[in-house]
Amino acid sequence: MAKTRTSYRCSHCSHVVAKWVGRCPECETWGSMDEVTLAVPVTGRAGSSAAKVGAGSMIPTSPARRMTEISSTSSVARPTGVAELDRVLGGGIVPGSVVLLAGEPGVGKSTLLLEVVRRWAERSPEDVALYVTGEESAGQVRLRADRTGAVHERVYLAAENDLATVFGHVEQVSPTLVIVDSVQTMQASDVDGVIGGVTQVRAITSALTSLAKGHGVAVILVGHVTKDGAVAGPRSLEHLVDVVLHFEGDKHSTLRMVRGVKNRFGAADEVGCFELREGGIEGIGDPSGLFLHHRSDSVPGTAVTVTMDGKRALLAEVQALVAPTQMPTPRRAVSGLDAARVAMNLAVLERRCGIKVGSHEVYAATVGGMRTTEPVVDLAVTLAVASAVLDVALPPDTVVLGEVGLAGEVRRVAGVDRRLAEAARLGFTRAVVPRDTAGGERPTTAPRGMRLLPVGTVAEALAATVRSRRGRADPSSDARRPSDRRAETGESVAVP
């Protein structure tokens, strides 16, 4: 026998307390305590329940089997037909898995999923896709499908927000792929709470997960995000599903990225690139060209580096503009970069290399709407600012890699081989790399046709790129400052 007891459970960390509190004592989250009813077993005397373990146990419907007897062929990923999405998923969707795709409103989640269901239905006559929408009518989804060319006879549409009705559609259609757009609009009639609330979202996700595991149906859930970009709803939502994907994009750019956050069947650091167009969404297999300006002309204030987004190497162009100002506090504007690291790079450039930027406005940005906070961009930002101040362009065939320290040293970065291979593939013939990368215990081998320029300090990097070209443009070396001549010899230059 058992009796019930009312307790309160945190929706974020599942911590249980006896009385309601406004703030969870475990994770310190406000307003996350929900009332729950727990069953407490009643025994005749203390310790008798432990002695009678198994006395009232139930016979399992499916007995446990040896691991060697279980086949793994049923859990092989099946490609969706969208190559960039399959890249992030680890080869495709595993039957019986649950994928959560979260993103801001209007970023293109529904457009991408319509392309997925069309490609899925085109695979074979046995593949049927069910698209359940709780935010739009079936006619509105059909209009978008007509515009993007995602109409197929084996794609079924259902405009429902009741969970029991959705289960009925699954029984009638027998799909192999189910799309629920979105989980915050679904409602379970036997569960208390408002639509989109913590209790409803948790119960609906648990029910859909049981459906996927029990019937071997792949389920993709669309989730909303909060103001800070996190997945809306309880934290346990991300623990229940198998894969969590974030769909990112700037409203002023057509570039979209699907970033893997959690993946039980593959790498969790992959990223897929898409371009949202009027006629739909298309994957970009080689996105480096979107982040590079036309490289035939050399322009002062630009430098090219290679960033790693997951396991994918992407070339990024950093641009800087330096202008004098009469304002007591010069402006510092940054777009696509870490503002704190840019400010540090400016301080190193002025203190260690003698290039005055304190009385100038500095604008630094990346091309193509790319966002990166990787430390490898430090040297590119520093050289781009120096190039803008000296009005001398860097060689157009040079790529720059390296993290800048406060002492002016250039530190090594991870994945240099993969970065240099990507740069060489796009036609770059010279690379400025940290000295310990080129001559360390495991020296980096330059790709065929590429020359490495190892540097140990920012001053050496300036002498190898910006000031070397400045010296060729101005043969009167006596007219240059002593700090310039010292930098060309590789010495560290400091402001007196």
From TrEMBL:
<dbReference type="InterPro" id="IPR041166">
    <property type="entry name" value="Rubredoxin_2"/>
</dbReference>
<feature type="compositionally biased region" description="Basic and acidic residues">
    <location>
        <begin position="471"/>
        <end position="489"/>
    </location>
</feature>
<keyword id="KW-0234">DNA repair</keyword>
<feature type="short sequence motif" description="RadA KNRFG motif">
    <location>
        <begin position="262"/>
        <end position="266"/>
    </location>
</feature>
<comment type="similarity">
    <text>Belongs to the RecA family. RadA subfamily.</text>
</comment>
<feature type="binding site">
    <location>
        <begin position="103"/>
        <end position="110"/>
    </location>
    <ligand>
        <name>ATP</name>
    </ligand>
</feature>
<feature type="region of interest" description="Lon-protease-like">
    <location>
        <begin position="361"/>
        <end position="496"/>
    </location>
</feature>
<feature type="domain" description="RecA family profile 1">
    <location>
        <begin position="74"/>
        <end position="225"/>
    </location>
</feature>
<comment type="function">
    <text>DNA-dependent ATPase involved in processing of recombination intermediates, plays a role in repairing DNA breaks. Stimulates the branch migration of RecA-mediated strand transfer reactions, allowing the 3' invading strand to extend heteroduplex DNA faster. Binds ssDNA in the presence of ADP but not other nucleotides, has ATPase activity that is stimulated by ssDNA and various branched DNA structures, but inhibited by SSB. Does not have RecA's homology-searching function.</text>
</comment>
<keyword id="KW-0227">DNA damage</keyword>
<dbReference type="InterPro" id="IPR004504">
    <property type="entry name" value="DNA_repair_RadA"/>
</dbReference>
<keyword id="KW-0378">Hydrolase</keyword>
<dbReference type="InterPro" id="IPR020588">
    <property type="entry name" value="RecA_ATP-bd"/>
</dbReference>
<dbReference type="Pfam" id="PF13541">
    <property type="entry name" value="ChlI"/>
</dbReference>
<keyword id="KW-0547">Nucleotide-binding</keyword>
<dbReference type="InterPro" id="IPR027417">
    <property type="entry name" value="P-loop_NTPase"/>
</dbReference>
<keyword id="KW-0479">Metal-binding</keyword>
<dbReference type="InterPro" id="IPR020568">
    <property type="entry name" value="Ribosomal_Su5_D2-typ_SF"/>
</dbReference>
<dbReference type="Pfam" id="PF13481">
    <property type="entry name" value="AAA_25"/>
</dbReference>
<keyword id="KW-0238">DNA-binding</keyword>
<dbReference type="Pfam" id="PF18073">
    <property type="entry name" value="Zn_ribbon_LapB"/>
</dbReference>
<dbReference type="InterPro" id="IPR003593">
    <property type="entry name" value="AAA+_ATPase"/>
</dbReference>
<keyword id="KW-0346">Stress response</keyword>
<feature type="region of interest" description="Disordered">
    <location>
        <begin position="465"/>
        <end position="496"/>
    </location>
</feature>
<keyword id="KW-0863">Zinc-finger</keyword>
<keyword id="KW-0862">Zinc</keyword>
<dbReference type="InterPro" id="IPR014721">
    <property type="entry name" value="Ribsml_uS5_D2-typ_fold_subgr"/>
</dbReference>
<protein>
    <recommendedName>
        <fullName>DNA repair protein RadA</fullName>
    </recommendedName>
</protein>
<comment type="function">
    <text>Plays a role in repairing double-strand DNA breaks, probably involving stabilizing or processing branched DNA or blocked replication forks.</text>
</comment>
<keyword id="KW-0067">ATP-binding</keyword>
